[in-house]
Amino acid sequence: MHANGDPVLVDADPVLAAGCVLWRRSPDDGELQICLVHRPKYDDWSHPKGKLKRGETALAGALREVEEETGHRCAPGPGLSTLRYVANGRPKQVSYWTAEETGGRFVPNREVDRVLWLAPAAARERVTQLRDRELVDELLAVLKRV
Fold it and tell me: What CATH architecture does domain 15-145 belong to?
């Protein structure tokens, strides 16, 4: 049973989604910042992500979702974990990449009403889902290797 009482459809095909841990160097002091989005429908803070369109590759979907949700373009980097969990009674699979912000401007929209650029420790604390914290840690590990 799902937390809301609905049965969990474990045999159902997963909902496929993709997103990025979007980062930049602060224009003020050069320190690393991570972008989080606030979705009013769920009142949560997360990394930009969304469902794939039919025939869309996961990376193309991730880049499209970043731009749609944040207004920012980005350059994709190494892949991160693919998270698997149940959402609304259906299995969901979300593939993630690192992505460096390359320009743009946020405009509030139907899906996302706010974005925050936070230091990694603050982003780790702000995300609503614990699984999103691991993605912050993965990004930091990738950037240390670069």
Answer: Alpha-Beta Complex (3.90)
